[in-house]
Predict the structure.
Amino acid sequence: AEAAPLLGFAPQVALTGPLHDVPDDVRRALVRLLRDGLDDLAQHQLSQAAVRLDRDDDGVNLQILASGPAPAGSTDTAVQAAGSLLTSPDRGTFALSWRLPAPRRP
């Protein structure tokens, strides 16, 4: 909801797995990555996006999926945090993806 005014639309959001035990430093990193990724989308006026956050036993996956050409700064945004940029030019889509280690606490 926070990104809607900046983007001009509300991205679809999907959360999977328990997020209550994600360490604070990982949470801060996720928020920064999400803001940077959505900022890239807003600067290039893309009209559709989805955010997926998946938690498993070893970490958290953050993925931003969007329609349209990948913004020029997307590779930098992904790589700065050891992420990846996957594009599918034939479908006109791209995905920014990150995996952050965050083992579950016993």
